[in-house]
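Quality-control log, excerpt.
Job 1 of 2 completed; input and output follow.
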Amino acid sequence: MASADQIKALVQSHISRDDGQFYSVAMQVAAHEAKVGHGRLAEELRDMIDAAKMRSVSHEPGKLVPLARPRGELANLLDVTYPKIRLTNMVLESVVLEQLQRIMQEQRLHARIREYGLSPRRKLLLVGPPGTGKTMTAAVLAGELEVPLFVVRLDALITKFMGETAAKLRQVFDAISQVRGVYFFDEFDAIGSQRSLANDVGEIRRVLNSFLQMIEQDQSTSLIVAATNHREILDHALYRRFDDVIEYSLPTPQQAVVLMRSHLGDFASKPLPVKVISEYAMGLSYAEIKRAVDDAIKEVVMHGTERVKAEALRRALLERHRLHERMENHKISIMV
């Protein structure tokens, strides 16, 4: 049960209308109940706290207020949003779609699953080329589950001072345990690279060790999502810390057609130039194809026409190919 000090702190925070302090103390009570073996009570308390936060009324109908918006130093480490995007907005391979549907189903029934001493999938590693939907997936999970999306700012997290990065990482994991949400570590290889790499430095090894310990110990209800374009350099010890590894790939010609038809909307020509799309979209990512469609639509808007023609799509896709090749050549020249 709550200690005398905790009860007084709860009453005082209620009198002062300090929601942040009230939720913090309530989470401490839930954590104590979990430690003494009252798992179901702890879970019920966490669910009540999460529900209270999400019921906040905004100035705009249907919009959530981020009551738990990071403050102080944590505000420099986390960017928070409330995405509205849904799974139906994505074009995915059937295997990836099934994985995400399973994760969301387990999350929606997480209280029931925990009653049987089981844990829903919530620690996810997303791997694949740039522009294939990893970042969008984090937003979709937050949107579907109606929880905030916290993007971890690695530029603020990683410092040159010994021990400082691990301390900041501890703050992030404290937030993960206190406020339910989707916590997204993009470009995760920056802290998750193999500890045996020749160009590794001691501080990064310590940060990785800290991350391994923290994610192993984390028993919160938040989702931890890490994404990388470079699966091959991740430390092997990471994989067993994640509940699921989801692999993304470049779209097939069929998927490219579905994506472009969806993104063109009313600007789509009839019939849609499927042959052009299939031929010229090959090798491009979802993000690159979307940008090509945007370019083609802008051309229609500027010329005052109604539909995107096949030639405009072909030019836009070719331009994306040329840009892609220049960037790849630039990467090669840097490596050499």
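Job 2 of 2 completed; input and output follow.
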Amino acid sequence: MPTPDNTNAPDNNGFFGNYGGQEIPLELKQVMDEIADAYQEIKNDEDFKQELAELQRNYVGRPSPIYFCRRLTEHLGGAEIYLKREDLNHTGAHKINHCLGEALLAKKMGKTKILAETGAGQHGVALSAACALVGIECEIHMGAVDIAKQAPNVTRMKIMGAKVISVERGTKTLKDAVDSAFEEYLSDPKNFFYAIGSVVGPHPFPQMVRDFQQIVGIEAREQFQNQTGSLPDTLVACVGGGSNAIGLFTAFLNDEQVEMIGVEPAGLGLDTDDHAATLTLGSPGVIHGMRCYLLQDEQGEPLPVYSIASGLDYPGVGPQHSYLKDIDRVQYHSATDQECLDAFITLSRSEGIIPALESAHAVAYAIRMAPKMAGKKILINLSGRGDKDIDFVAEKLHL
């Protein structure tokens, strides 16, 4: 079992094992180092910690509860299924956890505008809310395909004052939105702050976003023991970039008896080109300032990827996830679009809880495995609610 030092923290150069770092132009390194220094300063500042804790409690509504899915458990037989209800957070997902931290940091650094990409729109909505809260300009880049698919979230961003940029290049989805936002950031990195939406990008972002998200696992570990008298046997979370998963997993990394499962989008099937199963089928490479597992061509360029869940269609993945795969601490599996849709409906109709399509991938894995795990307890990170997806799903399933 690896020690806490090499599972929980990157080295001084931002590497988790062979993954991470700062694969960026030299002129950007100074800016990233300034962010890293500012983050290290504020993360131990009592005033900052108290301000963030108060907002988590009174603005976000933390702690989010643990819920036992009684009817779903009875329907499936086998393992007991529990949900960590991040869908109940203000703005509807786990994204608000790191957006508040990043917005506060940017404000304290004197930045004039916060930039970000978004896929499903949950990061964009959360960041729009955080920027409105602290009083700083917000600009969100979003692929044209995702804008059409996630219209309610686009409207929410605009209502809260964010400028939404439609990205028309490439596949017009998440990877292209990242490229677009990063180009705008490069136009004035001294005054702009790029609030990366997952545990990806150059150091310090994989660590910083992870640290803001680890409240999910810290709460869950205590809550689950208080509620059931034991730790969960298995943790399950969807993985695109990987922020909700690493947020849950971090507090349990040294509990050897707790199995951890990350669930990637298999899309139309792993035997097709229409998936985004990076850790399952990818290889080490470089994207967006970091080294990680990557779906790439022979020249090392990122491949087009696909998922029914806009927040998961990314060809890379967080460097800490890449490392945890290599040391076999976390197992990574996948779920297809059809399994995701089936899980979306099953959870909605058995428990009255509509999950985000992203989160439904994790639910799908639990539904698949629970009948084989009698006497065990599965904890799913329900990372977001499905309000944003209901029109798309209703049309897809002819409801």
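Post-run check on job 2. The chain has two domains: 15-55+95-210, 62-93+214-396.
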